[in-house]
Amino acid sequence: MYLIFIKRIADFFACLVGLILISPLLITLIITLAIVNKGKTFFYQQRAGIKGKPFTIIKLKTMTDAVDKDGNLLPAVERVTKIGNFCRKYSLDEIPQLINVLKGDMSLIGPRPLLVLYLDLYNEEQIKRQNVLPGITGWAQVNGRNAISWEEKFELDVYYVNNVSFSLDLKILFKTIDKVITRKDINNSDEVDMPRFTGTKNEPSKA
């Protein structure tokens, strides 16, 4: 009942109210990033949603498109702008994902949506993380984020899937607020700070 009905309604109205309340901040960030990134304000990427269904995630663009002399993109850590770093530090780049929640692609709380190509790399246990809507924050995010391995994050994701409840969501929400305020762990980017997932060693991958 909670997962199928109540959680979706709560997500929708919380995001609607949230977008209205933070719209002045969002507009300010959009204008600033448009100047810094030469008109490019948003970052779009295909991610795997519930049951592996692809969707386009929306984030504020925190990196430039700077390239080297051969035309290749510079390493991500070299392309993060000052305003982009500020957005990451306070999780402000995640704000546009409230639109994904309104659309039904995501939930406020759930496993983070990762690259579609990872779907073929999960083992039978790890793939269970796709059984619920991905979230803006989740159990793995408040328990280490990029300070832990991919395997540990996936274990936490599957724990969430197996134990999802209002009380667990509430606990994650409060822990997220605390980590954003203390600037600890919560918004270290998967694209910048984590190497790509290449499969779990010594365990069969999902075919």
Number of distinct beta strands: 4
Instruction: Tell me roughly what share of residues is in helical segments.
Output: 40-55%
Rg, nearest Å:
17 Å
The helix/strand series, from N terminus to C terminus, equals: HEEHHHEEHHH
Structural class, from helix and strand content?
Answer: mainly alpha
Characterize the quaternary organization of these chains.
single chain
What would you call the shape?
globular
Helix tally?
7
Biggest beta sheet attributes: 2 strands, antiparallel
Instruction: Walk across the major sheet and give the strand order.
Output: 1-2
Mean pLDDT: 89
Low-confidence runs: none
Span of the ends, CA to CA: 32 Å
- Number of structural units classed as domains: 1
Strand content: 5-15%
Describe this structure in words.
By secondary structure, the protein is mostly helical. The protein has one domain (2-193). 43% of the residues lie in helices and 10% in strands. The strands form two sheets. The chain has a two-stranded antiparallel sheet. A hairpin with a 5-residue loop joins β1 (42-48) and β2. It is globular and about 50 Å long. 31% of the residues are buried.
